[in-house]
Amino acid sequence: xxxxxxxxxxxxxxxxxxxxxxxxxRDPARDGTALVDLRDADLRGTDLTGTDLTGTDLTGxxxxxxxxxxxxxxxxxxxxxxxxxxxxxxxxxxxxxxxxxSLGYTNLRGANLMKxxxxxxSLGYANLRGANLTKADLRDALLIDANLxxxxLRGANLNDxxxxxxxxxxxxxxxxxxxxxxxxxxxxxGANLDGVKR
Length: 198
Known about the structure:
The structure is a single chain. The radius of gyration is 17 Å and the shape is elongated. With 198 residues, the protein is mostly loops. It has one helix spanning 14-24.
């Protein structure tokens, strides 16, 4: 029987943190056609503040409690990644693939998720206050009790999303699609619902 980890998330070793620091300080323009492959990597608790991981493949990676504030992950693949309790304040995730990602209790305040693919992502209790989700694909996403206050969801696809008890106060939902979305007990005070498809 495998030993259960009861100590919570482990800190990354100093050599792993050093390698990630070096990776983050590289010039992605010099990568050519090479892609950074961090699939299934265990990066929990790492400090990736301001790191440029544009186009990086982080499929299935574990980033629990990682610090990704102001990081650049444009066009990155984070499908099936675990980012629970991570700090992604002001992160750039434009056009990123976050399908089936676990983002519960994650801080995404002010994050740029424009055109991101968040289908089937779990965002329960996440802080998305002021986040840019313009034209994001949130079909079948779980947004239970998420904070979307003043979030920009213009043109976003929230079809079949579960947004029970979500806070959408003053959110911008113009031209968003909410077909079959669950909004039970969601707060829509002051939200812009012009052109919303139901």
